[in-house]
Amino acid sequence: MQLTRYTDYGLRVLIYLALLPHDKRASIDEVSDMYGLSRNNVNKLVHHLGRAGVIETVRGKNGGIRLSRKPDELNLGDMVKLLEKNLNIIDCQSPACLILPACRLKGIFVQATEAFLNELSKYTLNDLLGENAAPLRQILDIS
């Protein structure tokens, strides 16, 4: 299974925001410049994550984006389910598969996906930072 770039970029945005001091906000331009992502992609992610209540967005002179919850309250499994449009490993309908009525492969892939998400659900955004918070802040030039 490979997650989409959208999910990859979304997790990067969340990591960046989790590293910010609690009272600081980032701009969309700041995040897109830091990771070398298009402003349009980051804007879509911010809109999606904001609608889901994961990040807080504030317009205006002192505006910006930041996490709406603490990093230890943001479960990785939930974040992947939120960002990833389709977690199906295979599509047995397009084109329609001849052996579908007797095939067990789809069920096995469903179980594998559930195991994958269950494993991710053991971790939070805070677990991604841990002892790496200081080096990550240095790499991303966050003070």
TrEMBL record:
The record, for PROSITE patterns, names: HTH_RRF2_1 (PS01332), HTH_RRF2_2 (PS51197)
Q: Where, if anywhere, are coiled coils annotated?
A: none
What are the recorded GO MF terms, alphabetically? DNA binding; DNA-binding transcription factor activity
Keyword Membrane tagged: no
Q: Which domain of life is it from?
A: Bacteria
Q: Which UniProt keywords apply?
A: DNA-binding
Where does it sit, as one GO cellular component term? cytosol
| InterPro entries noted in UniProt | TR_Rrf2-type_CS, Tscrpt_reg_Rrf2, WH-like_DNA-bd_sf, WH_DNA-bd_sf
Listed name of the protein: HTH-type transcriptional repressor NsrR
Give the species.
Answer: Alteromonas halophila
Gene name linked to the record: nsrR
